[in-house]
Amino acid sequence: MFPVKCDPVRETEDFQLTLFQTPRYGLKRGYKIVFRQSFQGKTHEDVMYQLFQLLNVRERMPEDYSARFVGTGDIVSVERGSHSPIYYELKPGGWKEVRRLRVL
């Protein structure tokens, strides 16, 4: 007897996330890289949630992290393998995809 095959579950993958912040909260220009790390997850939303949890709870923050908490207006680039990065900005309703030109 053969095992029953279930719907394929997407395997977790490695994603490289880069967080960009402005020197002061609320500015529209001057984004700089403040954090970069690999995360394992199934989707962009999954790994961005992990990043948000890591950098918004003081007890979970890496010891060498010196930037502010993740907040509205911050931008994250998500890269998977050799794919081009996709950029997201944190808005009041959650992460929204933005054009790369917004970052530079």
Instruction: Round the mean pLDDT to the nearest integer and report it.
Output: 86
Distance between the termini: 58 Å
How much is the radius of gyration in Å?
A: 16 Å
* % residues in beta strands: 25-35%
Number of strands: 5
**Low-pLDDT segments, ≥5 res:** 1-7
User: Roughly what percent helix?
Assistant: 10-25%
Read across the widest sheet, the strand sequence of neighbours is: 2-1-3-4-5
Number of discrete helical segments: 1
Main structural class: mainly beta
Largest sheet, in brief, is: 5 strands, antiparallel
Shape: globular
What order do the helices and strands follow? EEHEEE
Q: Which descriptors would you attach to this protein?
A:
about 100 residues, mainly beta, five-stranded antiparallel β-sheet, 1 helix, disordered N terminus
Write up what this structure looks like.
The protein has one helix at 44-55, and strands at 13-21, 32-41, 75-79, 86-91, 94-98. It is globular, with a radius of gyration of 16 Å. Helix content is 12%, strand content 34%. It is mainly beta. It has a five-stranded antiparallel β-sheet.
